[in-house]
Amino acid sequence: MQPSAPSASTPGAASARPLAERRREATRLEIARAAAGLFAEHGPQHVTAEAIAEAAGISLRTFYRYFSAKEEAITPLLTSGADNWVSLLSDAPERDPLTLFPRLIDEVLIPQTAAAREELRVTRRVLRGIAETPLLSTAWHRVNADSEARLRPILSELCGPDADPLDVRILATIASDAIRLGLEHWAAGDTDPDGSAGVPAAIAQQVFARLSRGLSRDFSE
Asked: How confident is the model at residue 206 (pLDDT cuts 50, 70, 90)?
C-alpha cells in the first residue's frame, strides 16, 4: 500500500503533493517508454504486461496499479506530445491561431535534443503497429480526442467572446488532426526516422494549411 498523502494542514503539504504527482507521472512515463520499446521491437501482440513490468523494473502488481491493460501503457508517451501542444498554446503571445498554429507545429514535431529524437523514433515504430492492434488504435484515437477537447477552452479564450463556438471547435479539430495525420503519414513512410529533418512537421503544416482554408473568420480580430 502506498503511503497516504499529507493532509492540507500538514506543514509542507502544498509542496509534497505536487512532488508525489510528478513522481507518479514520471513512473507512468517510464513504463510507457518500456512498453513502447517492446512494442516497437517485438510487435504489440507478442508483448505481455509481465514483460513490460520487467523492462520498467517494477512488479506486475505495480504495473496494474498504473494501467489496466498492456495496451494502455503507451498512453502517457502519446499524451506527452499533446501536453506540450496544449502548454505551448496556453503560453503563446500571439492572438491569431491561424498564424500561431503553424509555428507551434514546428515546435512540437521537430525534436531539438537527442532524447526527443529517440522518443519520436520509438513513437514512429509504435504507430506503425497500431493498425494491427485495435486496442492500441483505440488508445491513440482517445489521446487525440482528449487533446482536441483540451484545446477548445484555450482557443475560446484566445479568440475572444465574439468567436463563433463552431469556428472554435472546427479549429481545435483541424489543429489536432494536423498533428495526428502528420505523425501517421510520416510513420507509414521510410524517410526521416527520427523526425529531425522535419518531415512529420512539414506534413502537419500541409494538413493544417489545407483544412484551415475553409475558415472564413479572421481570428486575429
From this structure: very high
